[in-house]
Amino acid sequence: MRLVPVVSVVAVGAAALASLATSPAAAEPDVRSAYTFAVIGDVPYGAAQIAAFPRWIQQINADRGVRTVVHLGDIKNGSSLCTDDYFKLIRSDFDTFEDPLVYTPGDNEWTDCHRANNGGYNPLERLAKVRELFFDQPGRSLGQKQLNVEVSDAAFPENVIYHQDEVTFVTANVTGSNNGLQPWTGNTAPTPEQAAAVSARNAANIAELHQAFAEAVEQGDRGVVVLQQADMFDPTYTPTVNDIGAFTSWVQALVDEASAFDGPVYLLDGDSHIYNTDKPVAAGSPWLTTYGVSGSADNLTRVTVDGSSNNKDYLRVTINKPGSADLLSWVRVAYAS
To answer: Which of left, alpha, beta for 256 (phi over 0: left; psi -120 to 50: alpha)?
Structure first.
């Protein structure tokens, strides 16, 4: 069920870029009075996007309002090779972001690499390579201007917490393909190695989430933003337990923490490739029944960014000043080419 967004969202077409600043809802924020960050995900997909990605990065670099960039995972499509050389190419692209870049992995760069057309890798070996190449300096972001981030568990350097403008941000390695539990090629069920890794990562994610909310309360932050790849509430299809069952304890933790928090909570994800905003764990949401979780959280708003063939824009998100109607507001900014 799609619910009415709680903030005003403007989609900006490529032809309208020249007049962007004339639209009050889409006006470039005053960098002296508001903190703004860009969000992308599920990019680049395929040869054309790989070629365009450096131009898109430069456009984000030229956006005067953007001070941090977030990539929500999936640095390749799900039917291409998970090679070291490709990962190094994307890392070199990431290094051209002038602002700090915070990246959380997606399933396409590790969970799904067991597929024959991905190279038939062991996904856990690919995750180790992703950590080696993209998280080689734990506690530091990517990009030319680095941001100090907090790693709560050294075994999971991709999971970080940071604070900006009285908002707590937390990235968690929560991926599609049923959080990594869908069977690898040649198997009808998860292998013991796979199941153990999913269990350990899920426990680390939940522990980090608890820590992030505790820090938000301790510091008096106005809100919490959770950043992950998986769309656990995809409105475009009816899932089965084999599609989403492994997310249940994470969803329960989100409900527990958000409902106890005296402020807005935002969940930013990618994965399903179609921009959407809703309140999936609010009272009365069918997702509460689907997951069988207890309680609800009316203060949690979910935003899914465009990706794959829909990846024609980035999301420019602004942290509004105290007294504003909403903590966050955002616009979709089209790529010029």
So the answer is: alpha
- Cis amide leading into 44 (omega within 30): yes
Q: What is the pLDDT of residues 277-288, one digit of tens each?
A: 999 999 999 999
* C-alpha distance from residue 80 to each of 15, 126, 176, 207, 274 (Å): 32, 14, 16, 33, 21
| pTM listed for this prediction | 0.91
The residue that leads in pLDDT, 29 or 115, is 115
Whether 108 is in a domain gets the answer yes
**Alpha carbons 109 and 92: distance in angstroms, whole number:** 16
pLDDT tens readout for residues 133-161: 999 999 999 999 999 999 999 999 999 99
Whether 3 is covered by a domain: the verdict is no
Residue 126: which H helix or E strand, with range? Answer: helix 123-134
Contact 300, 254 (CB under 8 A): yes
DSSP letter, residue 264? -
183 is a domain residue: yes
Between strands 276-278 and 223-227, the pairing is unpaired
For β-strands 276-278 and 300-304, DSSP reports them as antiparallel
The more confidently predicted of residues 15 and 322 is 322
* Beta-carbon contacts of residue 34 (< 8 Å; ≥ 6 apart): 65, 165, 318, 319, 320, 321
**Residue 89 belongs to domain with CATH number:** 3.60.21.10
Q: How many domains does the chain have?
A: 1
Report yes or no on 240 lying in a domain.
yes
Identify the burial level of 151 via C-beta atoms within 10 angstroms of its C-beta, where 0-12 means exposed, 13-18 middle and 19 or more buried.
Answer: middle
Give the range of the structural domain holding residue 283, as residue numbers without chain letter: 9-334
For residues 219 and 261, the answer to whether their CB atoms sit within 8 Å is no
How many whole angstroms separate alpha carbon 261 and alpha carbon 216? 9
